[in-house]
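Appendix C reproduces, verbatim, an entry submitted by the partner laboratory led by Prof. M.T., so that reviewers can inspect both the input and the predicted structure.
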Amino acid sequence: MKLRNILLFTAIGSSLLLGQIPDPVIRKHLPGQWSVNHQFDAISVSGTSFFGTDGIAYYDGTIRGADGVIKFQVSARWSVAGGKVITQVIESSNPDIFSVGSTEIDSVVVLNDSLYSYIDKDGGSLTEKRIPYN
């Protein structure tokens, strides 16, 4: 039993050192609500994301840029594979921006009870903070 725990700890520790968080760790820590505040050049995105234990994610937010303000709501299926969170849009209030069927693949860098950091498909490093349950 002790050897099994040591091997498991070594495997998880090695994955973390190599930058890949094991899928079971992601599935355990990702569900919940996260605060989104991202800045991309002249565009900012703020709002919340919610990952349910049922594999459905919800995003509710605002995009601000030189052309004005756009509010959005999106629902998506989410899954985990190879240290990445994969989301596919199933419903969108703004299909020109978030088209139904589009897929995002984010490589998880840090994920714990309070912080979720990842690299998006464009190579951008993004961080979200957990919103505690009341």
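DSSP finds two helices and eight strands in the chain. Additional entries are available on request from the coordinating office.
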